[in-house]
Fold each of these.
Amino acid sequence: MVNSERLWSRIQELALIGKTVDDGVNRFSYTLEEHAANEKVKQFMEEAGLEVSYDAVGNLIGSKAGEEDLPTILIGSHVDTVPNGGKFDGALGVLTGIEVMQSLQEQGINLRHPVKVIAFKDEEGTRFGFGLLGSRAVAGHLTHEDLERKDQQGISIREAMLERGFNPDKLHTAEMDHVKLYLELHIEQGKILESQGVSVGNVTGIAGPLWLKVKVVGEAEHAGATPMGQRKDPLVAASLMIAEIEKLASSYPDAVATVGSLSLTPGGVNVIPGTVEFTIDLRDVQEDIRDRLESQIREFADQIGRDRNIEVVIEELQRVSPVLCSDDIQAVIQESISELEVPVVSLPSGAGHDAMQFNGLFPVGMIFVRSKDGISHNPKEFTSREDAKAGADVMLKTLLKLDQE
């Protein structure tokens, strides 16, 4: 078992770096606050007996050699945050990996496989609007073109890397091979575990986001002088589409659909809108289901356009494939959960994680711990000390079992 007091103390200590007046956390990639957090995590890694280094893009890596010449087991998450974020998102996963390795060291348990605990650079994408930067580099997916992306001050990722002492010209050296599998522990950021009354759960997969922008073009006219039967109102058409999107998504067990942005022009109180634009975020762990939902939404939108003599244009903004967690790793996680004598709950992740970048490269597995009220990306984000310990104990048990395979 792990040392829950040490784990909890480190969570609180790390949360002081970048702390906001609202008791939230601001730690954005390649900033002084994020660097200070990494240096604190480096200290924890060294206390756990890990050999610590930074790679070319700034991933912080704590390594432990194995007793045999076998592929490496990766454990990771991140310490960067969204604006005014919480203290558990990402950080709990990194600190749990460190605690597991320190507990094994103190118990005199040596693993057959080498292990690397990684604090990935910039998972959230807050500063540059481009997330999963560190895990992209490890997977070999980060390009030199990506490094030209700029923040709101016009500073590129490349320039930010150089400012912190990293080497963008050696980007390729961050890529890892000879990897057995990847494990990640994360807060759920939802309410499923809480509704089931359990502290820890097995993740079946990570839903891939598909983002669409819908433009509905009607005719702007005088609100008082245009009879209802003669209007080409794009807002009414968009409203029908949005209602149908909710209905269609609700017909699938794990699919979600969100209209998160809506704008209309010209925007006068006495003017029928001429153009409406809104976004759609579609997610499901099964790509065929997500794509089927997309087709149904497109068909409905086209039909509304024809029925109302209104132009409808749908643009794809982003399409990311979902990731299914390894059945073999899931089985081990489920077995480890059952050993805590609590019900085994398996659930999908609607949010994205670093694990997504390793799809098709090597097996991945994820462990969720309960989030109070499902709140995340918020200073009120909270996971109890008991739940954090339960998650860490499952991680330790899972690692020991996978190391013997």
Amino acid sequence: MTRLFATLFAALVALPVFAAELGDDGLHKAPWMRDTFKDLGDDLEEATAEGKRLLVLIEQRGCIYCTKMHEEVFVVPEIKQFIEENYFVVQINMFGDVEVTDFDDKAMPEKEAVRRWNAMFTPTMMFFPEESEGELPADELAVVTMPGAFEKGTTLNLLRWVVEKGYETDEPFQKYLARKLGE
């Protein structure tokens, strides 16, 4: 019986643990997130200089859907690697007080920026073009906004569709997703 327990314990210890690390603000922290001054114009320039796309990820403390994304989706090796290679991710706290400077140079606390952008759900992912097209607020400049949590396949394909600039084609994301899932 002792050998059985030892074997079971060894098997449990060998299982990967995907507990998302929480920061002092109660939000999940991933190594691919950038700690910036949250000046979105500067963040876009830096992302473009690195050959990456700017992704603003809006989350809140205690969000069960954010937890799902961090523990079940963002940890999938293919998704994690795709994010690391293609995206410059800035996290915004839906109810935070850290100052954010929007693309139109208006500075405000995170919670006011989120309200301004009409983001009502967490997580929300906002994807931006490689260059700013004038002085617009983030919600008007974003090429794609994904409110809510989605499964692995949908999330990975959305990340790919944005990098491939699918939003500039005649194939909407839903048809792209159906085609990719059918391959």
Amino acid sequence: MYHSLLAILAVAPLAAPVPKVPAKTEMYFPTKVGAKWVYVYEFKGLCGSNQEQTDEVTAVEKKGGVFWVTVRQDVHGLPNSVSQFTVSGDGVTVSGRGGRMLPDPYPWVKLPAAAGDTWEICHSEPDGKPGTRTTVYTVGTAEKVLTPAGLFTTIPVQFKKAQFGGTMWHAPGVGPVKAVIGSGGLEVTMTLKSFIPGK
């Protein structure tokens, strides 16, 4: 359960009216190599101490008006996984994980965004198991989020998948600055500790 929660937050898988964000203006994820985030994970209801994760953009390729962004994620200084995102003025989509492209890419945030916007993504079961699972995403009210890295104006997106649910707060130019995901009595909070733009 512990690793499943981390996996969802690391790539995965996340509240009345949000002003319309003009398409093709702001990117809600970095598109420069060298951009680096440090996140702090806090656990409730789990055996384990808080930990830090460092993510860094290691490659960017532009195809048409879409940026394909590769991010390396390290936990405790050890390489953990690689994820790929597609980024444009239309939003941010998780396209790859663990060095492999996902058969069912899923948007983290769609632009323009307004409170109450929803979308559903049907995912194939992992490891070739038969069947599918559906994740429902709902845009919430734009809000300011204070983190150790600063104060950000964000678009919160709630998500619900099977027994998991939570919210991820997205800031322009930065990406996720906070996420909370829970299942039963278990809860993980991810907060941005620091952010360095790429060059």
